[in-house]
Amino acid sequence: MRNIKIQSDTSYMNEVECLLDSIADEMNLGDNAAAVNMAVSQAIKNAIVHGNRCDKAKCVTLDYGQCTGGLFFEVSDEGDGFDFASYGTSVPQEGRGEGLFMIRMLSDKVDYFPERRCLRMEFLVNGIQPSISRERIEALHRSTVGEAVNV
Q1: pLDDT greater than 80 at residue 143
Q2: CA atoms of 96 and 112, how far apart (whole Å)
Q3: How many domains does the chain have?
Q4: Among 39, 72, 79, 81, which one has the highest count of C-beta atoms within 10 angstroms of its own C-beta?
């Protein structure tokens, strides 16, 4: 397992995106890279903005590595946590839950560990079929219908 820690400032997202691109190349993610990058980037932005409330004295940690069949990413913050079951299970309403909805759509498995304030995403990229990847991207596009997905 490897990790990085960043200050709660969205200006560090370029560093995160470069790391995700590097992981995508290293793991040969091909067509799956965009879905993985988008989900993990969204989780980090949520941790910065909603978890740590952009408090630059707090950090967000990204742990990542291989799991059975693919990759996992764990995003932890220093905030108060949230009610995971209440967000992201249906099409977002009134600007709430878009980020978690997108994460759930693009990941194969998502768990939240409140005691660690940690969101874990798994991507079963070793066995994913291109048709499933396309279905996910199309479903995400239909859910946002031209709207920008906000944090």
Answers
A1: no
A2: 18
A3: 1
A4: 39
